């Protein structure tokens, strides 16, 4: 987890991640957690993202599958994949020029 972020929001996300990591590590239960955050940075005209995964890999996968399969989040996943594919294709084209 990052020690330093440029906003109160991202610092709080980082702090929450550290707290949850301590709880997960201290417990004996199989747990998994995914944290994804993004904040638009007006000074840099772009967004800053941070994300963490912690805990049992199988539980992290189960959480991600559950998130993907929710009707209200499926549209977000499809949008993110589309942007990722376009971005990746653009980067590959730039490499070949």
Layout of helices and strands, plus pairs?
Elements: H1 8-26, E1 32-41, E2 46-55, H2 57-69, H3 71-96
Question: Could you describe the 3D structure shown?
Answer:
This protein is of the alpha+beta class. The protein has one domain. It has helices at residues 8-26, 57-69, 71-96, and strands spanning 32-41, 46-55. The chain has a two-stranded antiparallel ribbon.
- Our count of helices gives 3
Mean pLDDT: 88
Main pleated-sheet profile: 2 strands, antiparallel
Number of strands: 2
Fraction in beta strands: 15-25%
Based on CA atoms alone, the radius of gyration comes out at 16 Å
Can you give the helix content as a percent range? 55-70%
Helix and strand element order = HEEHH
Give the end-to-end Cα distance, rounded to a whole number of Å: 36 Å
Gross geometry: globular
Structural class: alpha+beta
Strand order of the largest sheet: 1-2
Count of the domains: 1
Low-confidence stretches: none
Which keywords apply here?
97 residues, alpha+beta, two-stranded antiparallel sheet, 3 helices, 60% helix, 21% strand
Summed up, what is this model?
With 97 residues, this protein is an alpha+beta fold.
């Amino acid at each position: 987890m990052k020690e330093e972020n440029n906003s109160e929001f991202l610092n709080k996300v980082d702090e929450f991640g550290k707290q949850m990591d301590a709880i997960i590590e201290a417990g004996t239960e199989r747990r998994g957690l995914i944290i994804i955050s993004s904040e638009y940075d007006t000074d840099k005209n772009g967004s800053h993202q941070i994300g963490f995964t912690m805990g049992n890999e199988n539980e992290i996968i189960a959480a991600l599958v559950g998130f993907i399969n929710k009707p209200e989040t499926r549209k977000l996943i499809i949008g993110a994949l589309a942007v990722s594919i376009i971005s990746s294709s653009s980067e590959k084209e730039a490499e070949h020029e």
